[in-house]
Protein 1
Amino acid sequence: MVDIADIAARLDAAARDARAIPQITGQEGELALNDAYDIQRAVIDHRLARGATLVGVKMGFTSEAKMVQMGLKDQIWGRLTSDMVVADGGVLDRTRFIHPRVEPEVAVRLKAPLTGTVNYDEALAAVDAVAPALEVIDSRYENFRFALGDVVADNASSSAFVVGPWLPAETDLADVAMEMSVDGAVVERGSSDAILGDPIRSLIAAARLAGAAGLTLQPGWTVMLGGATAAAAIGSAGSVSLEAGRLGRVGFTIAGGGA
């Protein structure tokens, strides 16, 4: 029987101490997806007990090619908390992370609750604003190696996020060119269409998956809709930026030790 509380405590300590631990699969046996999401919720409960608040959700495996590669038929999701927020143009403390990577994304802010099975128009009607964004992912497992249950339990590797200037909800999210740079050099290029073919489809999935877990997406929450390209390692870099066509620019600088 899986010890939800014990595994959650281990993952929470690994995140707080920026110390990698062995992946759960192999130690405890393969984690069933429902157990993994229970562990994720328990990990987040530790943060909430320390004073953080829920501010949104993030989507993972939103690339159809990645899903095929991983043998998956659905996306995964994680929770965003207030202690994960880095201001646009702000400073990311490198010492808080183990082996951080960054990926370019599209974010939406909600103006109405969203949960369960919704159609495209209903999802779009709940959007208050859209923005370019960067997500810092940082697996708590050694060598960034994990099975599906491991990564879900680890909050889908989500660790920090940066959202650029908010734009009107009517801003077209289709085929936005994404160019991410580390220390001024372009490291990844892609398009918003890599996010399930249309980022709003990822919002629909977020409402469905969170709703199945009893969570309603709330007004004011941010939903990170998934990576538009592969993630890039931060290493000892000093800055990361994203140029996202009509959505504009977002970025941050990095302080603290190197990789």
Note: The longest helix spans residues 33-49.
Protein 2
Amino acid sequence: MHYNWNWGIFWEQSPDGIPYIDTLLIGLKWTIATAVLAWIMALILGTVIGTIRTTQKPWAVKIANGYVELFRNIPLLVQMFLWYFVMPELVPAAMGDWLKSLPEASFVTAFLALGFFTSSRVAVQVSTGINALPRGQRMAGAALGLTPVQTYRYVLLPMAFRIIIPALTNEFAAIIKNSSVALTIGLVELTAATYSMREFTFQTFESLTGATVIYIIISVIALMLARFLERVTAVPGYITTGSSSSGGH
């Protein structure tokens, strides 16, 4: 079998009238936009749900635990399909038609599904970080006259986040990779753009190599920023700098 190598394919015109390298970069734009918006959503929701899981209200803890189990145990691909194909059929007809007519429906669906999925994982990390703190910190907040909300805001959460930064770094790396699932609902992110380039040019190796290099570059940048953040916020005895590069999913 003879393979015709052509590394200049990246500068040849695609059917869209732009070089294939620009096609990949446009896909990268959608990948980053999806990952960043989903991460912001996951961090906010995950912090709230994770905090609730450590409160003294059994009914609230049960609801938060149910949220975590729901979104963490349903595969991301299934959640994407449910949000994109099923949800518009469950809401009132007018709202369903509006959802289907959104110009960027696949993008909105992708970051919402990815945000909910990742928020359940962040919630586990947040609750684990809070529970890892000595009980004395919670009692110290009460002794100072702080309300439970103030104790979480000023005492528990700042320390908990310093503990779980390595785990959150892993989650952020995962959310970038998981964004590729969005191609199944029509979002032309980096992986979808790569497949498109491969199908039109039949240059499989070059296409996949280009996408791999781009993924490596953004992953290295994210890892460098995470390690810097770890060094800045590290608390002796609670966190080991550089630990974000260990472990996996």
Note: The radius of gyration is 22 Å.
